[in-house]
């Protein structure tokens, strides 16, 4: 070999080495994690919120559009009287995610919700994805509630507002701009942007008043339903359909088969998937953790109590609705107040409609307020532009973030339909819940960190490892407490499980092929189940952290994995258009992160 060729090979080797090192450094930036202790010395907000305040906050987010719209939608053509079972199943599914949020709320004494939880466990890139999606979650929620608010407001005078707009505007603008009260919705969002420039204490007082009013109105509806109700509406037969004017009893497909479960178990499953939306919002409680007097106790209790009360409201309303009105008389798309028109109680209709408007107003404030909380945390970490955290000197609110994302919500409300917004918000929620479940699974098996921040972690990662990874050590660890090796094993296994569960859900989405008995697909399912079972067993055998917490998720690792599986499977049911909108939002987020956030990250 000539000296020249030797030099060339050496240069190529150095270039490849430098390239590998560059990729390694880039990868380390994506997975760098935030250490909780690094913020201990910083000034915290005044801790003034009690458990009762958190329960009011949770109810303000969960009891809203779901109880006033979804109850009628599910009862009319999906489940009938068994709608209450649908809410029960959806509530149990939400509890799995709620348990994960409750543990993190007890463990992490900082605001930031799932964003911060991902940051301290799975790394910066996933934390940014979670935080960026949380912003979309609140923006889409604002748009959804605005649409529902205008529907109820328009129904009060008998749709005269929308008819007048169509007659006066339609000759001058395209049809798409007058099909709904889009201009009114945009104005409504801008009005609430103005309300959000008030001080935090004033906003929270308004939210609590709205929440109390809507709970009282729902109690009135439940009481009226049981007074006017008839148990025979849970035992309807074909004879009742004939008596009601449905003479062709041989084609009752759209009415079901009667009785308590007219659409069968399949209808209950479809209804439960729809009712899942009704429980979204309890996680907003953990965005206020820095303002809670006793976060380790109040956060778990606030989440559990708010979910329980929400379920009671949904269960009672669906029972009262189907007792008061035969399910086949409920029109798809109708709202809860219209049930009183069917039984001739017109004054009660206006009472419930008033409660509906209060409920949606509280939800609108509740969705727009946490946007600036999450943005504040992300700006403080250096992942978003500092201008978004600019504070108004008079009211001490983040005026720029409130106005910008409020306008985005108004634009989404103008151009997207209600169903499109619901699907977009659902996919964001399911992804966020999955990341929180993964974070709980990882953090429970990590060794205790020392109180020296990033330096402690660097020393821990660079010290010589006395442990050796062996096959026996995977199932029979030598230590009874978490070690760096066992923590890394859980991280790797959790990542592989997330991938395998995603593949399993993709295969199960082709369930007609599986039912046909195709041996290839059945073999794939069996292999995936075996791998998932083996990795779950490895995680189960690793030592857990013994840190005393007021609340811990039971039955680890099964409950977080079950939550991840259910969330991913529901995500697979979304339409291509929903995925396209979600991808566009993520492209905007990645452009911000890779052009600004990765360079200005505070953790760096």
Automatic annotation (TrEMBL):
<keyword id="KW-0325">Glycoprotein</keyword>
<dbReference type="InterPro" id="IPR002293">
    <property type="entry name" value="AA/rel_permease1"/>
</dbReference>
<dbReference type="Pfam" id="PF13906">
    <property type="entry name" value="AA_permease_C"/>
</dbReference>
<dbReference type="Pfam" id="PF13520">
    <property type="entry name" value="AA_permease_2"/>
</dbReference>
<dbReference type="InterPro" id="IPR029485">
    <property type="entry name" value="CAT_C"/>
</dbReference>
<keyword id="KW-0813">Transport</keyword>
<dbReference type="GO" id="GO:0015171">
    <property type="term" value="F:amino acid transmembrane transporter activity"/>
</dbReference>
<feature type="transmembrane region" description="Helical">
    <location>
        <begin position="399"/>
        <end position="418"/>
    </location>
</feature>
<feature type="transmembrane region" description="Helical">
    <location>
        <begin position="578"/>
        <end position="598"/>
    </location>
</feature>
<protein>
    <submittedName>
        <fullName>Cationic amino acid transporter</fullName>
    </submittedName>
</protein>
<feature type="transmembrane region" description="Helical">
    <location>
        <begin position="173"/>
        <end position="197"/>
    </location>
</feature>
<feature type="transmembrane region" description="Helical">
    <location>
        <begin position="424"/>
        <end position="445"/>
    </location>
</feature>
<dbReference type="GO" id="GO:0012505">
    <property type="term" value="C:endomembrane system"/>
</dbReference>
<feature type="transmembrane region" description="Helical">
    <location>
        <begin position="84"/>
        <end position="105"/>
    </location>
</feature>
<feature type="domain" description="Cationic amino acid transporter C-terminal">
    <location>
        <begin position="551"/>
        <end position="601"/>
    </location>
</feature>
<keyword id="KW-0029">Amino-acid transport</keyword>
<feature type="transmembrane region" description="Helical">
    <location>
        <begin position="521"/>
        <end position="540"/>
    </location>
</feature>
<keyword id="KW-0472">Membrane</keyword>
<feature type="transmembrane region" description="Helical">
    <location>
        <begin position="54"/>
        <end position="72"/>
    </location>
</feature>
<feature type="transmembrane region" description="Helical">
    <location>
        <begin position="203"/>
        <end position="227"/>
    </location>
</feature>
<dbReference type="GO" id="GO:0005886">
    <property type="term" value="C:plasma membrane"/>
</dbReference>
<feature type="transmembrane region" description="Helical">
    <location>
        <begin position="489"/>
        <end position="509"/>
    </location>
</feature>
<keyword id="KW-0812">Transmembrane</keyword>
<feature type="transmembrane region" description="Helical">
    <location>
        <begin position="348"/>
        <end position="371"/>
    </location>
</feature>
<feature type="transmembrane region" description="Helical">
    <location>
        <begin position="549"/>
        <end position="572"/>
    </location>
</feature>
<keyword id="KW-1133">Transmembrane helix</keyword>
<feature type="transmembrane region" description="Helical">
    <location>
        <begin position="125"/>
        <end position="152"/>
    </location>
</feature>
<feature type="transmembrane region" description="Helical">
    <location>
        <begin position="303"/>
        <end position="328"/>
    </location>
</feature>
<comment type="similarity">
    <text>Belongs to the amino acid-polyamine-organocation (APC) superfamily. Cationic amino acid transporter (CAT) (TC 2.A.3.3) family.</text>
</comment>
């Amino acid at each position: 070999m000539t000296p020249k060729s030797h030099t060339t090979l050496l240069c190529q080797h150095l270039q490849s080495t430098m390239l590998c090192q560059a990729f390694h450094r880039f990868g380390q930036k994506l997975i760098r994690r935030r250490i909780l202790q690094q913020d201990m010395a910083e000034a915290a907000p005044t801790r003034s919120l009690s458990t009762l305040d958190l329960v009011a906050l949770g109810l303000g987010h969960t009891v809203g559009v779901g109880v006033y719209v979804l109850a009628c939608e599910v009862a009319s053509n999906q489940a009938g009287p068994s709608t209450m079972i649908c809410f029960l199943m959806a509530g149990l599914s939400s509890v799995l995610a709620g348990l994960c949020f409750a543990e993190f709320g007890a463990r992490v004494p900082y605001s930031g919700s799932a964003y911060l939880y991902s940051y301290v466990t799975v790394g910066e890139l996933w934390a940014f994805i979670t935080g960026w999606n949380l912003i979309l979650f609140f923006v889409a929620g604002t748009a959804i509630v605005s649409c529902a608010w205008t529907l109820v407001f328009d129904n009060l005078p008998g749709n005269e507002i929308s008819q007048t707009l169509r007659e006066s505007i339609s000759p001058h603008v395209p049809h798409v701009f007058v099909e709904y009260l889009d201009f009114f919705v945009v104005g409504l969002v801008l009005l609430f942007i103005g309300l959000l420039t008030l001080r935090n204490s004033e906003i929270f007082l308004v939210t609590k008043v709205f929440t109390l009013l809507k709970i009282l109105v729902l109690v009135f509806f439940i009481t009226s339903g049981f007074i006017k109700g008839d148990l025979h509406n849970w035992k309807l037969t074909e004879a009742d359909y004939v008596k009601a004017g449905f003479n062709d009893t041989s084609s009752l497909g759209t009415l079901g088969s009667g009785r308590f479960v007219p659409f069968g178990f399949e209808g209950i499953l479809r209804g439960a998937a729809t009712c899942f939306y009704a429980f979204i919002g309890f996680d907003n409680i953990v965005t206020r953790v820095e303002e809670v007097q006793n976060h380790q106790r109040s956060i778990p209790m606030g989440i559990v109590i708010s979910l329980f009360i929400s379920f009671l409201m949904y269960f009672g309303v669906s029972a009262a609705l189907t007792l008061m009105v035969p399910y086949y008389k409920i029109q798809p798309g109708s709202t809860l107040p219209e049930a009183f028109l069917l039984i001739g109680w017109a004054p009660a209709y206006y009472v419930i409609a008033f409660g509906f408007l209060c409920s949606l107003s509280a939800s609108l404030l509740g969705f727009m307020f946490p946007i600036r909380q999450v943005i504040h945390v992300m700006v403080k970490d250096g992942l978003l532009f500092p201008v978004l955290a600019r504070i108004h000197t008079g009211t001490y609110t983040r005026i720029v973030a409130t106005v910008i994302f409020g306008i985005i919500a108004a634009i989404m409300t103008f151009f997207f339909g209600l169903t499109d917004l619901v699907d977009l918000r659902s996919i964001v929620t399911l992804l966020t819940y999955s990341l929180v479940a993964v974070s709980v699974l990882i953090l429970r098996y990590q060794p205790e960190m020392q109180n020296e921040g990033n330096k402690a972690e660097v020393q821990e990662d660079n010290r010589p490892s006395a442990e050796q990874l062996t096959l026996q050590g995977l199932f029979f660890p030598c230590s009874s407490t978490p070690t760096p090796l066992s923590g890394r094993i859980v991280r790797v296994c959790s990542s592989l499980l997330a991938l395998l569960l995603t593949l399993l859900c993709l295969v199960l989405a082709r369930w007609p092929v599986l039912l046909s008995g195709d041996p290839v697909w059945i073999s794939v399912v069996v292999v995936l189940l075996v791998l998932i079972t083996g990795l779950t067993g490895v995680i189960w055998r690793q030592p857990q952290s013994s840190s005393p917490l007021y609340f811990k998720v039971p039955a680890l690792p099964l409950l977080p994995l079950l939550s991840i599986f259910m969330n991913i499977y529901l995500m697979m049911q979304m339409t291509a258009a929903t995925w396209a909108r979600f991808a566009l939002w993520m492209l905007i987020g990645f452009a911000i992160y890779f052009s600004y956030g990765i360079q200005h990250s505070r953790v760096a």
